[in-house]
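Table S5 (text form). Sequence records supplied for joint modeling of the three-component complex.
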Amino acid sequence: MIIKRRDFLAGSAAAVAIAGAPSIARGQGATIKIGEINSYSTQAAFLGPYRNGWNMALDEVNAAGGLNGRKLETVFRDDGGKPEDAVRHAGELVAAEKVDLLAGGFLSNIGLAIGGYAKQNKKLYVASEPLTDALVWAQGNRYTFRLRPSTYMQAAMLVEEAAKLPAMRWATVSPNYEYGQSAVKWFKELLSRKKPGVQFVSEQFPALGRIDAGATVQAVAAANPEAIFNVTFGADLTNFVRQGNTRGLFERRAVASMLTGEPEYMDPLKDETPENWIVTGYPWDQVNTPSHSKFRDDYRKKYNDYPRLGSVVGYDTVNAIINMLRKAGSTDTEKMVDAMEGLKFTSPFGPVEFRKIDHQATLGAFVGRTKVQGGKGIMVNWRYADGKDYLPSDAEVREMRPKDA
Amino acid sequence: MDFLLVQFLNGLASASSLFLVASGLSIIFGVSRIVNFAHGSFYMLGAYVAWTLTRGLDWVAFGHLGFWGGILIAAVVVGLLGVIVEILLLRRIYQAPELFQLLATFGVVLIVQDATLWIWGAQDLLGPRAPGMRGAIDIMGQRFPQYEMLLIVIGPAVLGLLWLLFHRTRWGTLVRAATLDREMVAALGVDQKLLFTSIFFLGSFLAALGGGLQLPREPVQLNMDLAIIADAFVVVVVGGMGSVGGAYLAALLIAELQAFMLFVPDFALFGVTVSISKMTLIPSFLVMAVVLVVRPYGLLGRPPSHARIAGAVEPVVRATPAELKWLGYAALALLVVLPFFVGDYGLIVATEILIMVLVAASLHFMMGPGGMASFGHAAYFGLGAYGAALMTKHLMAPMAVGLAAGPLLAGLFGILFGWFCVRLSGVYLAMLTLAFAQIVWSIAFQWVAMTGGDNGLLGIWPDSWATGKDVYYYLTLALCVAGVLVLRRMIYAPFGYALRAGRDSPLRAEAIGIDVVRVQWAAFTVAAVFAGLAGALFVYFKGSVFPTYASIPKSVDALMMVLMGGVQTITGPLIGAVVYMGLHEQLVRLTELWRLVLGASIIALVLAFPQGIAGFVVRLWLKGKAEDL
Amino acid sequence: MSVLAVQGLQKSFGGVQAVAGVSFAVEAGELLAMIGPNGAGKTTCFNMLMGQLRPDAGSVAFEGSDITGLAPRQVWRLGVGRTFQITATFASMTVSENVQMALLSHHRKLASFWAPATSLYADEAAALLQQVGMVDQRQRACGVLAYGDLKRVELAVALANQPRLLLMDEPTAGMAPRERVALMELTAKLTRDRGIAVLFTEHDMDVVFAQADRIIVLNRGRLIAQGTPAEVRADKGVQDVYLGSGSTFGGH
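The corresponding C-alpha cell record, covering 1286 residues in total, follows.
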C-alpha cells in the first residue's frame, strides 16, 4: 500500500472545506480553531496517516454536532522542516487566523521552537509527535504539552527487555542528532542502572538520512558486541539492515531497536525485516481491544487503508483537545492550560493522562519481537507498555524542569 | 587487519556510487559551465524509474535482464528528460549572467520534488536486490556483500568507458575541446547546440544510472536528491571541474576518509570532547577546503581558459535616477506607516522580509560589485544569530549587546574565511564558501554544550521594551534600511569602485595600484558583517536559533533572491528578496503543492527576465533614452 | 641617471630562453621603441619590467632604485604607468570614472567608504581626457567605445599618476594605420612636454621610425642592435632578421 498524494489530499478535503470558509464560521462566533503546524512537505510519509487520523477525529466530533454546538476546524500549515518557518506560521495562525490553540510538530527542534513561541505569547501548544525530552523537561513551560511517549520513555521500555538478556557487551547505532543522542544517553544510563557492569564497546553515530551502512556495520562488527541498540529509522534503517543481514552482523546477536515495530518503519522493509529484534512499535493488525478495533475499522472504512502509528497520534491529539475543551468549557488559554493539566481521556490504546507535573501524556507503546510472516514484518509476543510506568520519579522530573514552568 | 581491509573495500564501493553521480555533473559543468542543481533530481528520478521498471511492474520474473535492463532503460529515460530540460529551458539562457542558470535548475529541483511525490507517493520504496547477488563473499573471515564487490568494479569500468568515449571518438574530442575553450569550438563550426544537448543526455544518464544502481543498497525515497547533490558538487570541485578522472580520485579520497574516520576514538580538546567518528558529514567539506586552498582548481583541474564566462557585459553603474530615488522614498514612507494598516501577522511577514532584504543586499555586495558569488552566505547569517543568542543565553546580555555581537562574530569569521576565499575565483570561490559554511553548520550542530545542537537555543526574545510586534518592526526597519543604505553608499564610494575595478579587469586594477585581493577581502568581510546583523535581528525576532540558520537551504535562498532580482543592479536583490520571500510565504499557505508552483514561477521568471527582474525593468526603462546599452 | 636601467635581464620557460641577458636604459623625455619579430621576447621583457613576471636573473632599476620583483601595483606607485596590448579598462564604468579610479588610487583614497566616487577628481580626469581628446565622451561607458578611443582612455589613465616612465605594449595594435600615427604623435607630444620617459613595443615600422628617438632590436631573447632610427635602419643584422622573418621593414 502506498499513500498517494492524491489520497492524502482527498482525505483532508473535508478539513480544507471547513477551513476555506472561516469568515462564515467566525460570523456565527461558533467555531473553535486549531492551528496545526507540521513538516508536510519534508516528512510526507509519516504525516499523511497522521493527518488522516486527525481529520477522522475532527469529523467525528463535528458530525456529532460539535462541542456545545460549536464546530471544530483546523488550519494546517507546512513548515518545510524549518523551525524558523514554523514560528512564522505560529504567528500567522495566532494573529491572522485567530486560532484558539496550536498543535502539531514532528521534528524535535520544531516542537521546541513552537513551544518557545507558546511560552512567549501565552498560547496553548499541544505537541503531537516530537520526541525530544527537552520539550517537557529542560525546556518545559506552562503552555506546552506533549502526547507521544518521549525518547526517554521509549528507551526505558527497551531497557526493561534488554536487561533480561545475558548480553553484557553492547554497541549502539544511532542517527547523529538530538533524538539519537538522547536515546543512546538514556539507554546507557538506564541499562547500567538496572544491570551494573554492562559495557558499551562501540557507539556509531551516522548522519541522519546519510548512513554509510557498509562502513558502519563493519565498525560495529569490529568491536564484537554481544548485543546492539539501534536507533536508526527510515532509509537509514533499511540500509543498515540490508548491509547487516548480508554481512551477518545480527547473527547470534540480540538487537533492541527504537520504533522499528511502527508500521511507518517496518512496512518498507517487507520480507527483509530482521527477525527477533526487540522493538517498540504498533501491531495495528493484532490489537483487538474494543476501542482499538473500532478505531481500526472506522479508519479503514474512511480511508480504505490501515492505520499507522501516526494515525493514532493524529487521532489522539484531536481527541485530547476535544476532551480538554469539554473540561475547560472555554477557549480562554489559561483555562485550557488548567484543563490540560491532569486531563484524562481514552485513546484507542487505553486510558491516557496528561501529567500535571511535566505535561507529558502517559500514552504508551507496544513492546515485542519482530518476525517475518507472509512476506512482511510483524510484531509478535508484544505487550502494551503503559507510558506512566516508564517515566522518571517525580523528584527527578522536578529537578529537570525549569522552576517557572 | 582484516577489518581494515574490508573497511577499505567499503570505501571503494561508496566511492563508486559517489563517482557515478559526480562524473555526470563534472562533464556537464566542464562543457556548459552550468552549475546544475537539478543533477540530484535526475539521480533520484533514476532510482524511482528503475524501481518502477524492476519492481513496481513485477518484472522481477525476468531475472537478470529485467533488473539490469530496468536500470539501463531508466537511465536512458532520465537522460532524455535531461535533454528536454536543456532544450526547453537552459538553451534559452546560456547568454544570461554567470550562475543565472543555477536559478533555473533550482526551479527544476522544486518541480521534480512535488512531481515525484505525486507519482510515487510518500512512503520509502524498497528496491529489489540484484539477482544472484544477495549473498556475501568471504574475505579473510569477513563477509563482504557481492553487490558491493560489483560496485567496486563498476566505478572504474565506467571511468574507463568514459575515457574511451572522450579519447577515441570524434564526439569525445569535441567535448574535450569544448571543455578547454568553448568559443574555439564554436569558431570551428561545430553545432554547439547539439553538443550541449548530447552532453546533457550523458550527464543525466550517468546521474540516473548512479541512482538506479543504489536500488539494492538503499530504499528509494524523496530526500535522495538533496542528500546527494552537495556531495556530488564537492567531489566534482575536489577533482577539478570537468575532470572525470579527478572526480574518481576525489570520490575515492572522500569515501575512504568517511569509512576510516568511524574508527577514530573520541578525545578531549580544551576540555571539550571531540568526536571525530560522529562528524561523518564534515570530511568531504574539509577535504574540499584543504584542496582548494592548496590547489585552487582541484586535484586534476585546469584553470579555465576564460576567467569570466562569456555573457552580457556588466552595465555601467550610474547615479540613482531621480525617479528611482522618489520611488525609494515612497517605499520607505509606506514601510513607516505600515503598522497602521496591517495587523500583527502583516508585521511579522514584513519584519522577516526586511531581514531577508538585508541578507540579499549583503550577498549582492560581494556578488555584484565584487564578482564573488557565495554558496555559503548563510554561514554569516547563522554566525550573527548565534553570536547574539550566545550573548543573551550565556551572559544574560541585553539585546543591544547581542545585536552588536552578532555582526562582530560574523565579521571575524568573514576575515578568517575570506582570506582563503578571495584567493580563488568563480565557482571554486563559491564552493569554498560552501565548505566553510558547512563547517560553521557542523560546529553549531555538534557543539551541543555551547549551541544546544540541533535542538538549538531557545527563549532569545527581545528586551521588554521591544517585545511589541510594532516596536520590533520599527527596530528592524531602522537597522535594515540603514544597513542597505550603508552598503549602497559603499558601492558608490571609492571602495566600491575599487571593488568593481577588480572585478572588471584585475590586470588593469593591479596596474593602477589597486590591491585587488585586499579589496575583495575587505568586501567579503563587509558582506559577512551585514549578513551577521540580519542574523542577529532574526534571532530575537524568532526567539530561537537552530543550525538550520547556517544550512545550505538558507544559503540557496539568499542566492536565489539575488539572482531573481538581478545581480547587475543594486536595487535588484532587494526586489528579489521581496518577491522570493513573498511568493514562498503566500504559496505555502495557499497550496499543498507550493514547491511545484514556486518552481514553475521561478522558471517562468527566469525565462521572462534573464537579467533578473530589476535588470529587465532597467532595460525597459532605458530603452528609449540610453545609448550605452 | 637613467629613468629606467635594465641590466642582464633573463627569463626562461621550461628550458626555452625567452629573454637572454638584455640590458638597456631609457632617459627622461626619450621615446625608446623596442622592436623585433614575433617571439623575440618583447612581451616577456615588458612583463618583467612591470612586475607581472619575476626575472631569473638581472635587475631593473627605476630612477636608481632596484624594482626587480616588485608587484605591478608597487611599481606603479613609484611612478610607472602602463598600457596593455589588448586594452584593459573597467567596462562597468564611464570613461571619466576609469581615469578617476587611477587618480583615486594615486591619491590613496580607495579605502574611503563614504564619499561618492563620481564627484572626486572629476575635474582632473576631465583635464587628462581633454589632453587625449576624449573629454566629450567622458560620460560614455567604456564598454561601448571604439577601439581607438579605448587606447586614448588608457593613455589618460596611464598619465594619471604623473608617471616618470610609461611602458606601452603595442599601443597601436588593432588600430587603423592613420589612427596609429595620430595616437603616437599624441603620446610623443604629451610625454615630451612632461619629460616622461617612454618605452614601447611596436609592429608598425611607420610608427616606430616616425616617433622613436631611439630603437632597440630584440631577436630570440637577445639585444641585437640599438641606436637612432637611421642607425638601426642601416644595421645589416637587423635587416637580416626582418627579411628572414618575412616582415616588411621601413617601407617609406
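Note: The longest strand of chain C covers residues 16-26.
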